[in-house]
Automatic annotation (TrEMBL), chains A, B:
<dbReference type="InterPro" id="IPR017938">
    <property type="entry name" value="Riboflavin_synthase-like_b-brl"/>
</dbReference>
<dbReference type="InterPro" id="IPR017927">
    <property type="entry name" value="FAD-bd_FR_type"/>
</dbReference>
<keyword id="KW-0479">Metal-binding</keyword>
<dbReference type="InterPro" id="IPR039261">
    <property type="entry name" value="FNR_nucleotide-bd"/>
</dbReference>
<feature type="domain" description="FAD-binding FR-type">
    <location>
        <begin position="1"/>
        <end position="90"/>
    </location>
</feature>
<dbReference type="GO" id="GO:0046872">
    <property type="term" value="F:metal ion binding"/>
</dbReference>
<feature type="binding site">
    <location>
        <position position="217"/>
    </location>
    <ligand>
        <name>[2Fe-2S] cluster</name>
    </ligand>
</feature>
<feature type="binding site">
    <location>
        <position position="220"/>
    </location>
    <ligand>
        <name>[2Fe-2S] cluster</name>
    </ligand>
</feature>
<dbReference type="GO" id="GO:0050660">
    <property type="term" value="F:flavin adenine dinucleotide binding"/>
</dbReference>
Automatic annotation (TrEMBL), chains C, D:
<dbReference type="InterPro" id="IPR049622">
    <property type="entry name" value="Dihydroorotate_DH_I"/>
</dbReference>
<feature type="binding site">
    <location>
        <begin position="28"/>
        <end position="29"/>
    </location>
    <ligand>
        <name>FMN</name>
    </ligand>
</feature>
<dbReference type="InterPro" id="IPR001295">
    <property type="entry name" value="Dihydroorotate_DH_CS"/>
</dbReference>
<feature type="binding site">
    <location>
        <position position="28"/>
    </location>
    <ligand>
        <name>substrate</name>
    </ligand>
</feature>
<feature type="binding site">
    <location>
        <begin position="221"/>
        <end position="222"/>
    </location>
    <ligand>
        <name>FMN</name>
    </ligand>
</feature>
<comment type="similarity">
    <text>Belongs to the dihydroorotate dehydrogenase family. Type 1 subfamily.</text>
</comment>
<feature type="binding site">
    <location>
        <begin position="53"/>
        <end position="57"/>
    </location>
    <ligand>
        <name>substrate</name>
    </ligand>
</feature>
<feature type="binding site">
    <location>
        <begin position="243"/>
        <end position="244"/>
    </location>
    <ligand>
        <name>FMN</name>
    </ligand>
</feature>
<keyword id="KW-0285">Flavoprotein</keyword>
Amino acid sequence: MEIERVIDETPTVRTLLFQDDIMEGALPGQFAMVWVPGAGELPMSVMAAEEPGMAAFTVRRRGAASTGLYDTAKGGLIGVRGPYGRAFEATQGRALLVGGGTGMSPLMRLLSRLGSASHVDVLIGAQTEKEVFFEGLAGRLAGDVPHRIVVTTEDGSYGRQGRVTDELEGMLDEKPDAVYTCGPEPMMHAVVRAADSRGIPVQASVERVMKCGVGICGSCCMGEDLVCTDGAVFDGKHLIANSEFGSVFRDKSGTVRNV
Amino acid sequence: MEIERVIDETPTVRTLLFQDDIMEGALPGQFAMVWVPGAGELPMSVMAAEEPGMAAFTVRRRGAASTGLYDTAKGGLIGVRGPYGRAFEATQGRALLVGGGTGMSPLMRLLSRLGSASHVDVLIGAQTEKEVFFEGLAGRLAGDVPHRIVVTTEDGSYGRQGRVTDELEGMLDEKPDAVYTCGPEPMMHAVVRAADSRGIPVQASVERVMKCGVGICGSCCMGEDLVCTDGAVFDGKHLIANSEFGSVFRDKSGTVRNV
Amino acid sequence: MLASGILGISVDVFRRVLGAGAGAVVTKSLSREPWEGYSNPTITGTGGGGWLNAVGLSNPGASAFAGMLKGQGLPAVVSLVGSAPAEFVSMIKEFRDGAAAFEINLSCPHVAKVGLEVGDDPGLVGEIVSAAKRAADVPVFAKVGLGSTHYIKTAGAAAEAGADAITAINTVRAMSIDVEAKKPVLSNGFGGLSGPPIRPIAVRCVWELASKYDVPVIGCGGVSSWEDAIEMMLAGACAVQVGSAAGGRIGIFGEINAGILGYMERNGFGSVKEMVGLART
Amino acid sequence: MLASGILGISVDVFRRVLGAGAGAVVTKSLSREPWEGYSNPTITGTGGGGWLNAVGLSNPGASAFAGMLKGQGLPAVVSLVGSAPAEFVSMIKEFRDGAAAFEINLSCPHVAKVGLEVGDDPGLVGEIVSAAKRAADVPVFAKVGLGSTHYIKTAGAAAEAGADAITAINTVRAMSIDVEAKKPVLSNGFGGLSGPPIRPIAVRCVWELASKYDVPVIGCGGVSSWEDAIEMMLAGACAVQVGSAAGGRIGIFGEINAGILGYMERNGFGSVKEMVGLART
Ligand SMILES: Cc1cc2nc3c(=O)[nH]c(=O)nc-3n(C[C@H](O)[C@H](O)[C@H](O)COP(=O)(O)OP(=O)(O)OC[C@H]3O[C@@H](n4cnc5c(N)ncnc54)[C@H](O)[C@@H]3O)c2cc1C
Ligand SMILES: Cc1cc2nc3c(=O)[nH]c(=O)nc-3n(C[C@H](O)[C@H](O)[C@H](O)COP(=O)(O)OP(=O)(O)OC[C@H]3O[C@@H](n4cnc5c(N)ncnc54)[C@H](O)[C@@H]3O)c2cc1C
Ligand SMILES: Cc1cc2nc3c(=O)[nH]c(=O)nc-3n(C[C@H](O)[C@H](O)[C@H](O)COP(=O)(O)O)c2cc1C
Ligand SMILES: Cc1cc2nc3c(=O)[nH]c(=O)nc-3n(C[C@H](O)[C@H](O)[C@H](O)COP(=O)(O)O)c2cc1C
Ligand code: FES
Ligand code: FES
């Protein structure tokens, strides 16, 4: 796959756009295994592209693979397999999307498919102003659907000061019909518990170490679930019943670690 | 595949019927590779069955494999792969079918699909009365189509005395629109030449040693043709241009032998 | 039986696999220390249901795993890798109360100094299996594959040293190159081929082993349906492991069980034993 | 290049294959006397485009074939099987004027005393290749496969004895059993696995050979598209043979040629040489 356009979102986050029918058809929340020759392979949520026929990934540079992908310029080649996993189920009515960091990426794709929602709230969390992205895009993707976009930064340099969870209660009071979340696991854990305790259906896209992406290697296990095939999107009730969610994950060796 | 019914045609020829959708769908002239566990595997033209949903093979016992198949009783198991090869192209109008021995089998299947012909002549050759078969069946398969069935025996014990080729000239004088033949190669050679020299389209189903049936092994070559994939049914003009037709074949080792 | 390295690092997942109908599970091959394994890509498809992997024996280490299995009473076969008899002995000792059997991995085709490189040295194989047998109070299996020493010799050495069963086969050393990237797909270059493509090779190995030695053979390689499982048994396997085919399809164990039962009924077999090696008679 | 044993017994068919775009053809492996081979079934499908065959090296014998090729000027590589150096020498002598090269089959996995059983004896391989080199006035290739002796050793012995190229690989010894008949499908029981399932194994062998020896490697095994052919070249093959995939699809040679040309253009390669072994750099 050839990268056709690169967008700098923040100093550490880029969106890479490319033409591919298969990825363009991915459902929101599905992911792909993205190979950066020489650098590695990693799971990436399929991101929305504004251009028809295009798909995208939004990547933050962290380790070798993500940095390799981040550094892939226009014209660069990547290998993509998938899409894999379960997607968000888009429900009707009023929707609340809560995302942190690159976890916004599947939510953006979901937003681009929420045309029949009655109202959409998007809650975006970041550490600081420079790391805020997708605010403008969220507005464009929401299009005609009545929407509100709220940004929080931990240092208060942009939007409201604090964490997304601080804003959450108020927005849940407005009784959304469905909550969708993706981001750091402690954040998702809080969102899932808060929504579920009020009886509001919630879905979260979970992250684990992935090697195969297709349910062979077991590296992505979370309790008895395999995040790659049973998820990455899970229903909130299911997650609450899974004692490993929000608590432990397995590193690359399979050693159990705290989230 | 389980054999459901066995018909003794002559002291050395039997028809084995079985239920199989794939073989039931074989076109007339196509063949299958039939495995008789323990005895061998051999190419067999798919034969017509009067029972709906059934297909059949008609086998003369000769060597190990054909005798193994011949000896397979009701309830016996055979393995079948295929159908393979090109089929007879059924043309409109007046048809002449010329067969010898088990070469009648693909012609019978063809006859069962000639419902739109205006007239069908069937010319059956055998050595002696006891070896005549399919005469009654040919009549039944022709059904409403006006038809004539002529049998020749070399010893004159049944039908007209002589070889099929002796009757051929007279029947070609009646200007059939198409001639179809299957049987011993010298007979087919004569039929093809006679029909072609009068400008009558003729198709023949050729026999060669077959191991794979799918164009891999080359054992069935006749000139540059592979009988398994380019045939077994060939157009007469093509056969006349092939210097090996009617002249030489390769035995199991690939050694060239006279037909 | 679930093959080693497939879904094999968590007790919760084992329970799910057992619930789906597997008679036993084999753990990911464990080493004395935790191993990260190779970096991604570690797995790639090769067509026809085949997979090429070089996970690099990533595992949390024997101690951590022993802790997980302890007292759970699971029918878990603990797979072990190492280079010397003492390593195996020390790992085996960690598993008092937790292992139903041990499987010595003599055949991983893509990690240096362990697996195949051990299997390729029949003398060492004999020492390891003897030592493991002495240390273990449960059965010890030896898992062989196609290496630079003929697997028949490796299996022979293991059998002579007292192995209770031979598992055959592991993945087959192989490689895929991406023509656009012009590089091997796996980060390690070489990997092991598994899935339906290797089934006919595995069936042949099971047949050859069962014909040659008296020790029970556990068939592994490309089994993805009940017919494949029966094929292994007819060749001589008294038990069958399913690896790649369980990927994304944990229900396969139940399907295979049901298929085998139906087959046995149709063919009048009273027990699995009657089928083992039947095609060789 | 058409691989040995595929469509390989008639000059007319060779012409057709060459006309379809093959650069050369390899004959069926020939023995001193004609061989009938095994009785049918000799070939069976194994899924995923794989084939298992035990044709049993049926062939009309070297003399008969030499007569057919004589003076035809075809780019025909004559494949030979035998058990002793003298046999190969006497066969090679029959082919004055008719062979563009010889390929010594050291790797047929299903016939006793020839093929793999010879390849498993590196000493004998050395003798045969030396003798063949002395007798032949055209290049001599040695074809290796996965046997009980590691193919790297066999290839090494052939290279040392002066082989002009190594062809890798032959079919892989394997078996299929029919669960209803409860018997191996092939009359010979064992056969050789070919087609896409073995491609990753063949690519690995080409890579390993090209990395280890200086002698040119001819890639063979599972090539069924231009991508597969390029993959072989990137691994280190300077020529590629197509076997099973040519079955029923002789036009594949033209398709592969066109695909390679397009690829070279897109990637700016001026000659095939630039691609050979590129993935290893
Ligand atoms: C389904 C799914 C979708 C994803 N979508 C995106 C996306 O759209 N954009 C994006 O930028 N990233 C996404 N990720 C995360 C991404 O795949 C990588 O894990 C991340 O980029 C780090 O990979 P790396 O190989 O570069 O770094 P590594 O060298 O593997 O790690 C760098 C750091 O991140 C930590 N880390 C890596 N993986 C995990 C994990 N699973 N859980 C906890 N910590 C971890 C490491 O411990 C280390 O501190 C997704 C992950 C999953 C499972
Ligand atoms: C496309 C095709 C369709 C066929 N359909 C039928 C059919 O419907 N019914 C039927 O009974 N047979 C049919 N045959 C012939 C059949 O496949 C076998 O060749 C025949 O039954 C003998 O096989 P065997 O293995 O029993 O005997 P073998 O032991 O192989 O041979 C017995 C005798 O037959 C001779 N023979 C075998 N094959 C050939 C050959 N190809 N050309 C010349 N001589 C040969 C042998 O030389 C030997 O004398 C067909 C063949 C082909 C290629
Ligand atoms: C991703 C993956 C990881 C594997 N890890 C191991 C391992 O740790 N130890 C081992 O003995 N075999 C391992 N294997 C090999 C399998 O246990 C099995 O022998 C092989 O895959 C063939 O079986 P299959 O075709 O059913 O998958 C692994 C296979 C795969 C695909
Ligand atoms: C039917 C058949 C017959 C073969 N006969 C020979 C042979 O006589 N000599 C030989 O060296 N290889 C023989 N081979 C092996 C092929 O030449 C080739 O090495 C193998 O099939 C792998 O290539 P492929 O996957 O492209 O078929 C034969 C293969 C098949 C399928
Ligand atoms: S990533 Fe391999 S099982 Fe989920
Ligand atoms: S029978 Fe094998 S090519 Fe025709």
